[in-house]
Design a protein that fits this description.
heterotrimer; A mainly alpha (about 325); B mainly alpha (about 270); C alpha/beta (about 400); A: about 325 residues; mainly alpha; two-stranded antiparallel ribbon; 15 helices; flat; B: about 270 residues; Bact_solute-bd_prot1 (chain C); sugar transport (chain C); palmitate (chain C); Multiple sugar transport system substrate-binding protein (chain C)
């Protein structure tokens, strides 16, 4: 009924108008812009404009709490950062987190997704449980992990047997960053799982049926149907997790609570804690903004490379 | 690996259960800590000492207005998720399946947007919101967040995998591209839209930095901010904090549990044949 | 290629135009609130972060302020945390909705004062006729920078040294220590298995107290590597080398009070906040609070907080009056009941009657002083903590002299 009446109204508008509209709704060019327009408007107003303001700050000596007294100092912030070995230390830590965590959490997430995509009793519960760390406050999770990874618990005893020192992990400069990686993997695996889960859902069943007719083994079906189909999603997961890895903050803040950010002794400093420390905590927002701009350039490069190697050819 | 799957079933269950326990442990411990008096923090104590006092405070202390905060959170999260459900898929579809000049640029805009820590632009955003008179209103809490670069990117990646044959078939049936999007792609991408909704829901519900900055009167607090706002001590009362975490996480768990059922294998079969 | 460039530059021009237009719009912000004509009320906004009880007390003060200052309407704004306050403040100032005055502690105030966030109140005191004579000189001095007064003191309390009474008695030890040498001797006796003799939190507050007890101090950045400071740091390092000290972090905790409450350390430097915390965290614990032991002299830090008027306050005189009203006897008594020692001389005596466990600290009120951190306070304390953690938790192998020299070189 409703479909009929809408058609009826459309007909009233006259054939010419209808076909004009139709061609609009069918043209890649207009539709492309039409569909991205709501995003672009919001983006320009709520991202680009604020970002440009912050970008301008990166050339200023700007006190966070007295922005009206900011002075332009050219590239001074940038040169100062590039001469600060703490910045490169932080950058190295960020890269370490990404390099260690991303492969593990991607594979773990895929494994979890495959597990809970099976015919399994109570799989709703399992899905929820695996997703739990992602939705629970990271501060709470970190607090709990800190209780488990302190000297003398069964976990540190266990790792002690494996050759790690039996120490409080987050208080030891050797293990603190690894501790952050464990937290990050644990959090991000749930995210990876549900993205993969929906990816698995959308693989057309006919592809598997066709594979079965050709007598493909389960492994081959996985290798030649599932994996290629999930490739764009995998690219998404890897690049998003890379960004998330670079931006990891809550966990480190929880470890450093009551102390200096990046504790112990700067062993868990990252580019984001570096920005936070200088830009917000030391109120030197110009310097902090410059750090973010540099960080932005680096991570853009990484994503560009990832796209080249992981994303499909269009 | 190929045919042994049935004989492996007990192992599958055992493995999944072990993994499940591992993943559930921190949250279980959070629940445990939320029901013990402060003096037992860091120790295991018998259920005889458990108490709901920490939760009761939230509902009896005048400083807390949990129902109001809950309502605020529902409104904020609902509006943001709905906005994301309209704006992101459209942009994602345009980037995945339409050819137009400027597309490459928009793609990199989307990607670049994700990379800036929000803290960096928070002050200008705050001033923006204030100049519109939107401080402490739902407008300020929702409008800037109706899109998310992350989810546009995600949906683009999903839509790329939608076979072009579907769109061509739609064309033969007389649908425009716009029609094909709303009638074919949108329903077809159901599970990815569910995923996006779940992620957007969890992200918005749990957000602290933004709502605590843009809305800082007790009437406009959202749950996470409100539960963190009122401290009764000089130092952190861990059980109270954990009780707050449990209270604010339960709705997301419920939301997820209800929606994960929508993941039904092979849903895309519906449109393929023919 | 050319086409793409054109597109991009068109886009940039567009963005720029947008930005210019927006900045122009932002330029003519609504003019400041007009001073109320006679009879009209002036609204003063007070911002604070703290507990629910604090809010209640302030709300009461807001309700009664008209009795003394009928022209002022006081609005209380609570921030979820100090971090949240500082995060929001720049935006609030830009948008013209920042509070007119706030309460803050002297641990971080020097930095904000020197960075021009607050207004000196000397002229305002003259103009409004508030009575600064109610506050002792030691308190006022903390809030005086370069000869200018910045804060109206609210409370002050010396740092303390806490001893687990049960452990002390069980070990058969006699009088409580008055010097670090006696502390070390006792710590060796108290050091048993899991329990460490002394908790030395590698945190600026605690380290500063060691430094002061040797007659040292940071001198606002000028005397970071003074011989007294080096001696104090050597003492700390020595206690770690002897295995009688523990930092909360390596025991798996956040701060010293937690270790103390869990009976994993017998002694610790600390402050008045121990009382409220221990009451919940370990209600059965018996503890003793004494002045910080001597290195070479009596010395410890004073924790003070005060009301300060922001430099962007719309009506500074009204703000100062309201700030002064916060120190009225009723409000101060209410805070006293929560454990704060009022900076009003006439009330302080009662405080020690109400909090007998702190009685031993009364003499320390005379000689305790401000922290004396450099202008870049947070950068300094972060650096200090980082260096000490590097030594104790990371085995950097530096000496006390090297550590302080390194830090001094960054804060000329």
């Amino acid at each position: 009924m409703s479909e009929y009446s809408s058609k009826h109204v459309g007909a009233k508008g006259g054939k010419i108008k209808q076909s004009w509209l139709r061609s609009l709704a069918d043209s890649d060019k207009t539709l492309g812009w039409l569909f991205t327009l709501p995003f672009l408007i919001l983006w320009a107003w709520w991202f680009l404009y604020p970002f440009i303001q912050s970008f301008v700050r990166s050339f200023q000596d700007a006190n966070f709490a007295a922005l009206d007294q900011a002075k332009f100092i050219g590239l001074e912030n940038y040169t100062a950062i590039l001469h600060d070995k703490e910045f490169f230390r932080a950058l190295l830590h960020s890269l370490e987190i990404v390099v260690i965590s991303i492969p593990i959490q991607t594979l773990l997430g895929l494994l979890l997704a495959i597990l809970v995509n099976q015919k399994l009793k109570g799989k709703g519960i399992f899905r929820t449980v695996f997703f739990l760390p992602y939705i629970t406050s990271q501060i709470a999770i970190t607090t709990v992990f800190m209780m488990m990874f302190k000297q003398g618990t069964f976990l540190t005893d266990f790792f002690g047997v494996l050759g790690f020192g039996n120490v409080t992990w987050f208080a030891d400069t050797r293990y603190a960053l690894l501790f952050v990686c464990i937290l990050f993997i644990f959090q991000q695996a749930g995210f990876t799982m549900i993205v993969y889960l929906s990816g698995l859902q959308e693989i057309p069943k006919d592809l598997y049926e066709a594979g079965e007719i050709d007598g493909a083994s389960k492994w081959n079906k996985f290798r030649y149907i599932t994996v290629p189909y999930l490739k764009p999603i995998t690219f998404f997961i890897v690049s998003v997790s890379t960004i998330a890895g670079f931006q990891i903050y809550d966990q480190i803040a929880a470890i450093s609570r009551y102390g200096a950010l990046g504790s112990p002794a700067g062993a868990t400093s990252t580019v984001v804690t570096y920005f936070y420390q200088h830009g917000i905590r030391y109120m030197n927002i110009g310097y902090g903004s410059a750090a973010v701009v540099l960080f932005f350039i680096i991570i853009m490069l990484i994503t560009y490379l990832q796209k080249k190697f992981l994303d499909e050819k269009e | 690996m190929k045919t042994r799957i049935n004989s492996n079933r007990p192992f599958l269950y055992i493995g999944t259960i072990i993994l499940g326990l591992l993943f559930a442990l921190p949250f279980l411990y959070t629940i445990y800590t939320s029901v013990i008096p402060m003096r037992y923090v860091n120790t295991l104590t018998s259920p005889a000492n458990w108490t709901f006092e920490n939760f009761k405070v939230f509902f009896t202390n005048d400083a807390y207005n949990v129902p109001r905060w809950f309502l605020n959170t529902v409104i904020m999260t609902g509006a943001v998720v709905l906005g994301n459900l309209v704006i992101n898929p459209m942009a994602g579809f345009a980037l995945a399946k339409l050819n137009f000049r400027g597309k490459g640029l928009i793609y990199w805009i989307v990607v670049a947007t994700m990379m800036v820590p929000y803290h960096m632009i928070l002050i200008p955003v705050y001033v923006n919101v204030a100049q519109l008179g939107w401080l402490n209103t739902f407008w300020g809490l929702t409008v800037p967040f109706l899109y998310q670069g992350l989810y546009i990117f995600m949906l683009r990646q999903f839509f790329i995998s939608v076979p072009n044959e579907f769109l061509e078939a739609a064309r033969i049936d007389g649908l425009t591209k716009m029609g094909a999007f709303w009638r074919i792609v949108y329903p077809l991408a159901r599970s990815s839209l569910i995923t996006m909704s779940i992620l957007a829901f969890a992200g918005t519900w749990n957000s602290y930095l933004i709502p605590s900055t843009l809305a800082n009167t007790p009437e406009m607090y959202v749950l996470v901010v409100g539960l963190n706002s009122v401290k009764d001590m000089f130092f952190e009362n861990t059980p109270m904090i954990m009780a707050g975490v449990v209270l604010s996480t339960l709705p997301i768990i419920l939301f997820f549990f209800l929606f994960q059922r929508q993941y039904i294998e092979g849903i895309s079969n519906a449109g393929v044949k023919g | 290629m050319g086409k793409v460039n054109k597109k991009i530059s068109a886009m940039l021009v567009l963005c720029l135009a947008l930005v210019v237009a927006l900045t122009a719009c932002g330029g003519n912000k609504s003019a400041d609130n007009k001073e109320g004509a006679s009879g009209e009320k002036v609204t003063v906004n007070f911002g604070f972060w703290g507990t629910a009880q604090d809010l209640e007390i302030y709300q009461k003060a807001a309700d009664t302020i008209s009795e003394k200052y009928p022209e002022i309407e006081l609005k209380i704004k609570q921030y979820p945390s100090s971090e949240q306050f500082w995060n929001t403040l720049p935006g609030e100032i830009a948008a013209g909705v920042a509070p007119d005055f706030i309460k803050m502690s002297n641990e971080g105030a020097y930095e904000y004062i020197n960075k021009g966030l607050f207004t000196p109140i000397d002229d305002l005191v003259q103009a409004t006729g508030v009575d600064m004579g109610r506050f002792p000189d030691t308190s006022k001095k903390i809030w005086n920078v370069d000869g200018k007064q910045y804060g109206i003191p609210n409370s002050d309390m010396p740092a303390m040294f806490f001893i687990n009474e049960q452990m002390w008695k069980d070990a058969g030890l006699g009088d409580y220590p008055t010097t670090w040498d006696e502390v070390i001797e006792a710590a060796k006796v108290l050091n048993k298995g899991n329990v460490k003799g002394i908790i030395v939190n590698l945190d600026a507050f605690h380290i500063t107290n060691y430094v002061k007890s040797f007659g040292g101090g940071w001198g606002n950045g000028k005397t970071i590597n003074s011989p007294e400071n080096v001696k104090a740091l050597e003492l700390i390092i020595d206690m770690y080398n002897q295995g009688i000290a523990v930092t909360p972090k390596s025991a798996g905790f956040g701060w010293d009070g937690e270790v103390f409450a869990n009976s994993l350390g017998a002694m610790s430097t600390g402050g008045y906040w121990y009382k409220g915390y221990l009451k919940d965290a370990n209600p059965d614990m018996k503890y003793v609070a004494i002045p910080v032991p001597k290195g070479t002299t009596n010395g410890s830090t004073m924790s003070s907080d005060a009301y300060m008027v922001l430099k962007d306050a719309k009506n500074k005189e009204a703000a100062l009056k309201a700030a002064y009203y916060m120190t009225n006897d009723d409000t101060q008594t209410a805070f006293m009941d929560l454990g704060f020692n009022p900076a009003v001389s006439s009330l302080s005596e009662k405080y020690f009657e109400k909090n007998p466990e702190f009685k031993a600290l009364q003499p320390a009120l005379e000689y305790s002083t401000d922290y004396g951190y450099p202008t870049d306070t947070k950068r300094f304390t972060d650096e200090l903590v980082k260096e000490l953690e590097g030594l104790v938790l990371g085995g950097s192998g530096k000496t006390a002299q090297q550590i302080l020299d390194d830090i001094q070189s960054q804060f000329q």
